[in-house]
């Protein structure tokens, strides 16, 4: 068979396969991967707080005794300052209806917020929640966190982007793997004791990621936080916030009625009593 004919046939086969994939349901990763040798931790619940069951949580961060929360959905997206003990919204800034809000993080006296597919982010004053400016990026925006030198961003892939916090331009990327396999669907992020914690979309697992190598250092299995009855009409786990001063870890999910303060424990320890 002539080479040109072979190339045409191969192109047609690739196009046919690609077309067949369109419209197929998203395949959820089965975690941990076969061959993974990193520890899988569980949790103990130390406190339960109320959470707005209408909040489609996309980003969560603890700062100055309050939770800052970014919510999603077109026409419903917000940035909020929330009182932890009561779940009461202390301050709120709405996003224009054509934007789908995503992850947030603080940087100095500002708060950064991504949008899903609009390739635009917002910068707010942390005290007033007044929008100060916007910034641009390529592709989708999912989660945000930061360390001392960079803002760190997820885009739903297996890579994390590191941004210059002054210009918010990308400096480099980090591929996240476990057992040599890329971990895709990295979503909401948090910096915890020198590691990057990442929700993996549509799972109950949080990955503990090395910020230098990208290797998963361990998994946290957060299944069972909500009872089946509580979770019946709710969406997925999504939202991690850390209080370094008191070593407190908070987690919640999209449309969840509760915010949980947890301690991560190794082995097969039993979950705490609600």
How are the elements arranged and paired?
Layout: H1 3-21, E1 40-50, E2 57-63, E3 66-71, E4 78-82, E5 89-94, E6 101-107, E7 110-115, E8 120-125, E9 131-136, E10 144-146, E11 151-154, E12 159-163, E13 170-175, E14 177-178, E15 181-182, E16 186-192, E17 195-200, E18 205-209, E19 216-221, H2 228-231, E20 237-243, E21 248-253, E22 258-265
Parallel strand pairs: 1-19
Antiparallel strand pairs: 1-22, 2-3, 3-4, 4-5, 6-7, 7-8, 8-9, 10-11, 11-12, 12-13, 14-15, 16-17, 17-18, 18-19, 20-21, 21-22
Description:
Helices cover 8% and strands 46% of the residues. It is mainly β and 274 residues long. The protein has a single domain (50-265), classed as YVTN repeat-like/Quinoprotein amine dehydrogenase (Methylamine Dehydrogenase, Chain H, 7 Propeller). The chain has an 8-stranded mixed beta sheet, with no helix packed on it. Strands 2-3-4-5 form a 4-stranded antiparallel beta sheet, with no helix packed on it. Strand 20 and strand 21 (248-253) form a beta hairpin. It starts with a helix and ends in a 9-residue tail after the last strand.
Keywords for this structure?
274 residues; mainly beta; Methylamine Dehydrogenase, Chain H; globular; disordered C terminus
Structural class: mainly beta
Averaged pLDDT:
88
**CATH-derived topology:** Methylamine Dehydrogenase, Chain H
Our estimate of the beta-strand percent is over 45%
Please state how the strands of the largest beta sheet are arranged side by side.
16-17-18-19-1-22-21-20
The CATH superfamily is YVTN repeat-like/Quinoprotein amine dehydrogenase
Give a quick account of the main beta sheet: strands, pairing sense, barrel closure.
Answer: 8 strands, mixed
Helicity level, as a percent range? under 10%
**What is the total tally of β strands?**
22
CATH architecture: 7 Propeller
């Amino acid at each position: 068979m002539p080479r040109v004919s072979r190339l045409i046939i191969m192109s047609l086969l690739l196009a046919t396969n690609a077309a067949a994939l369109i419209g197929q349901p998203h395949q959820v990763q089965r975690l941990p991967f076969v061959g993974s040798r990193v520890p899988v931790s569980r949790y103990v619940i130390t406190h339960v707080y109320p959470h707005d069951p209408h909040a489609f949580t996309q980003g969560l961060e603890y700062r100055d005794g309050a939770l800052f929360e970014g919510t999603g959905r077109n026409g419903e997206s917000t940035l909020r300052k929330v009182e932890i003990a009561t779940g009461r919204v202390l301050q709120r800034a709405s996003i224009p209806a054509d934007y789908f809000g995503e992850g947030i993080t603080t940087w100095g006296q500002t708060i950064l917020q991504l949008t899903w597919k609009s390739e635009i982010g917002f910068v707010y004053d942390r005290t007033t929640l007044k929008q100060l400016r916007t910034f641009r990026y390529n592709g989708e925006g999912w989660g945000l966190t930061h360390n001392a030198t960079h803002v760190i961003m997820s885009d739903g892939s297996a890579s994390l982007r590191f941004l210059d916090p002054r210009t918010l331009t990308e400096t480099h990327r980090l591929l996240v793997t476990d057992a040599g396999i890329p971990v895709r669907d990295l979503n909401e992020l948090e910096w915890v004791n020198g590691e990057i914690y990442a929700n993996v979309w549509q799972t109950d697992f949080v990955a503990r990621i090395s910020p230098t190598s990208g290797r998963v250092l361990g998994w946290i299995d957060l299944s069972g936080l909500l009872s089946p009855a509580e979770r019946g009409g709710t969406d997925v786990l999504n939202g991690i916030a850390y209080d370094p001063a008191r070593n407190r870890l908070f987690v919640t999910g999209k449309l969840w009625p509760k915010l949980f303060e947890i301690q991560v424990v190794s082995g097969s320890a039993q979950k705490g009593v609600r």
